[in-house]
Amino acid sequence: MIEVNDIHKSFGDTHVLKGISTVFETGKTNLIIGQSGSGKTVFLKCLLGLFYPEEGDIVYDGKSYASLPTNEKRNLRQEMGMVFQGSALFDSMTVEGNVMFPLEMFTKQAESEMKDRVEAVLKRVNLIDAHSKFPSEISGGMQKRVAIARAIVMNPKYLFCDEPNSGLDPKTAILIDDLIKEITEEYDITTVINTHDMNSVMQIGEKILFLKDGIKEWEGSKNEIFKTDNQAVTDFVYSSDLFKKVRQMYIEERN
Amino acid sequence: MNYLASVGSYAIMVKEIFKKPTKWRIMKSLILKEIDELIYGSLGIIIFISFFIGAVVAIQTALNLTNPLIPRNLIGFATRQSVILEFAPTFVSVIMAGKVGSYITSSIGTMRVTEQIDALEVMGVNSLNYLVFPKIIAMLFYPFAIAISMYVGIFGGWFAGVFGGFLTSANFVEGLQMDFVPFHIAYAFIKTLIFAFVIATIPSYHGFYMKGGALEVGKASTTAFVWTSVVIIILNYLLTQLMLG
Questions:
Q1: Residue B178: strand, helix, or coil
Q2: Are the CB atoms for A36 and A214 separated by under 8 Å?
C-alpha cells in the first residue's frame, strides 16, 4: 500500500503538485488520469523517488520515504518495478539480457537460476522465442511485454507504468492492460498506472485518481466514474463521442 | 554564473561516479567493452594521424634548415621533441576528444532521451557509476595508445626524412638520441593520464545531464567536444608551466 500525504513539488516558480493526498491499495490497479500538464508524470516520478517533494510524504507499507537513509531508499527502489512509456529497454542487450539485468545487479543467483527465472517471466508475459532478439528487432507491443517482464522479474511490491499503451494498436493495448491487471492480482502488488487511455480506465481502473492543474480533482472507481457529476472529470473522460454514448447508455440502463 | 554552476555539478558528478560501485562481475565486462570501444577502436586513426604528422614535422623542419652550419640531425631531434612533448599527448587528445568524446556523449545522451538512465535509477543502480566509471578505467589504458602514437610519429619522421632525401638514417637516429631528457617522457604520460580523465568525464557530463530529444543529443556532442578541447588546451598550458617551466 502506498499512502501519499499532501505532497507539493515545484520547478522554479512553477508549482506543479499542489498538495496531493491519496492511498493506493495493494492488489489493485490504480490509475492516474488527467490532461497533459496536469502533473501526472511529476506525481509518478515522485512515487518512484526520482523527484523529491518539497513538502509532504510518501509512505510505502509503513516506510516513510523521506525519512529513510540513502541505502534503504535504494533497497526500497529494488522493490519497485517500472514500465516506461517508451519501454526504456537497454538497446545494447538482448531481450534475455534486459530481463536478467536486475537479477545480475542485485542477486547472487547462479546463471542457471537466473535463466530459469527469466524464462518463467517471459513465459508469463507470453513472450516465447524472443530471448536472443534485440529491442530494435521486436514490435512495440513485444517491447512493452519485455519491459513488464523486466519490471516483475525481481518480484516487486510496487509496479509503476507510465502510459503503457501509448503507441500500441487497440487490440495490443487491451492485451497489455489485461496482463498488468492479471500480474497485479497474481503477485499481489500495488500497481499505479499513468494513462491517457480511456479504454484502460474502463477496463482495469479499480481506483482512478483524476489530477487537474496539480491538484486531486476527483477519485473513485471505474463504476463511480459513470455516475460522477464532477464537470472536469466528465469533460475529460467523455470528451469523445463514443464515450459520451457509452455514458448515455449507462445512465439510461440505470433509469 | 552558468559556467560556475556547470563546474559545480561536474564536480558533484565526479564524486557520485565513485559511490555505490556496481558488482565487479558486471563491471569487469563493462570495462573490457569500453577498452575495446574507446582504446582499441581508436588505434587505427591514432596510428594513421601520428605517422603523417610525424612525417610533416620532419619535412617542415628540414625545409626550414637553410643554414649549412646547422647539423641535419636536428631534424631527428625536432621530430622527437615535437612528437613526444606535444603532438602525441596533446594533439592526439584533441582528436580523441572528437572521436571518443562524441561517442561517449551521444551514447549516454541517447540513454537519457530514451529513459534508459531513468530505468537504471528506478532499479536502484548508481547510473553514473555504471555508465562512467568503466570509461574512466578504460581510459587508464590511453597512455598505451599515446606510446604507440609516439613510436609511429617518430617512425613517420624517419620515413619522410630518409626517403625524402633530407638526411641519412644514421643522422636521424643521432638526432633522436641527442640531449634526451627522460623526464619528458614522464611529463608526456602524466599529461596523457590527466587528459584521459578529462576525455572520459566531460563528454559523460554533457551526455548525462542533457535535456531534450535527438537533436539535442547532436548539440550536446558538439558542446562536449568544444569544452573537452578547451579544457585540454588550458590544462596543457598549466601542466607545461608547472612541470617544465
A1: coil
A2: no
- Determine the residue among A11, A72, A82, A162 to mutate to test chain B binding: the one whose Cβ has the most chain B Cβ atoms within 10 Å: A82
Report d(CA B234, CA B191) in Å as an integer.
12
- In this predicted model, what pLDDT tens digit does every residue of B142-189 receive, in sequence order? 999 999 999 999 999 999 999 999 999 999 999 999 999 999 999 999
pTM of the full structure: 0.87
Cβ pairs A/B, distance under 8 A: 48
**Cβ contacts (< 8 Å) between B114 and chain A: which residues?**
86, 88, 91
CA neighbor of A197 nearest in space, from A226, A217, A168 = A168
| Whole-number pLDDT of residue B1 | 65
Short-list A129, A88, A85, A121, CA closest to A103: A121
C-alpha pair distances (Å), A132 with each of A93, A97, A120, A154: 9, 8, 15, 21
Rounded to 10 deg, the angle between the B127-139 and B2-17 helix axes is 90
Comparing alpha-carbon positions, the chain B residue that sits nearest to A75 is B124
Evaluate whether A197 touches A167 at the Cβ level (below 8 Å): no
CA distances from B19 to A66, B16, B29, B157 (A): 21, 5, 19, 46
Cα gap B43→A41, rounded to integer Å:
45
| Separation of alpha carbons B133 and B221, rounded Å | 19
- Delineate the domains of chain A, giving CATH numbers in brackets: 1-79+157-227 (3.40.50.300), 91-155 (no CATH)
